[in-house]
Design brief:
Blueprint (H helix, E strand, L loop, with lengths): L6 E4 L4 E15 L4 E10 L5 E12 L7 E15 L3 E9 L2 E12 L5
Parallel strand pairs: 1-7
Antiparallel strand pairs: 2-5, 3-4, 3-6, 6-7
């Protein structure tokens, strides 16, 4: 997954992020060809999943003379709400196993000195 930023600043909570995108690139080796369930989920500090359900199935087809295949995913998410300041994480799971995780922290806007 691409982690272009790991902090979001908000004047108050809850805060609604009107639109964002999540990009991921998954590499499958020759023996991993076939159908796979993919899920991306956002977890709060208490371990609860927040936001929309981002899941689906992908069919990975690998040619005879190719050692691997790459699947690119770009997901557009609207109206993602963060109820509190603090740490969150974005997890990518393939077939029920988390393969990648990125931190994301919601922080108050710094006050001028």
């Amino acid at each position: 997954m691409l982690g272009a930023f790991d902090n979001l600043f908000a004047k108050e909570t809850p805060v609604r992020h009107r639109a964002c995108s999540i990009a991921a690139r998954i590499r499958f080796s020759k023996i991993e060809g076939g159908d796979h369930a993919v899920r991306i989920f956002i977890i709060d500090a208490d371990g609860n999943s927040i936001g929309p359900k981002l899941e689906g199935n992908i069919a990975v087809r690998i040619g005879d003379n190719t050692p691997a295949a790459v699947v690119n995913l770009i997901l557009n998410v609207q109206n993602l709400e963060f109820k509190e300041y603090g740490p969150y994480q974005i997890d990518l799971a393939v077939d029920g196993t988390v393969q990648a995780s990125l931190p994301l922290t919601i922080r108050p806007v710094p006050q001028p000195h």
